[in-house]
Amino acid sequence: MFARLRSYLPTAILATLIFYFGFQALTGPRGFLSVRQRSYILEQKTAELAKLHAVRQDLETRARLLRDQSLSADLLEERARSLLGLADPRDYVIRTKS
User: Fold this and answer.
1) What is the pTM of this model?
2) Best label site of 10, 31, 38, 94, fewest CB within 10 Å?
């Protein structure tokens, strides 16, 4: 009996491998059925990247204005007031309870 089944063993192993890889091709993390999820994640990451580029551009502009070659008096005054906690006598200060 085992002698007759032994001739079908390579075919059974091959069929099992084909089924396994076919199933993974459909439902695996990179399979055909997860295309929508990957597209959604890609859109989210693209939007996040655009926001980070905008923040970086703003920081680069502010850093450029604080260099010795192109010092912006307004930005320097803003940063000094922010770091020292000072206000101009003409400014309105609204205190809130934390």
Assistant:
1) 0.52
2) 94
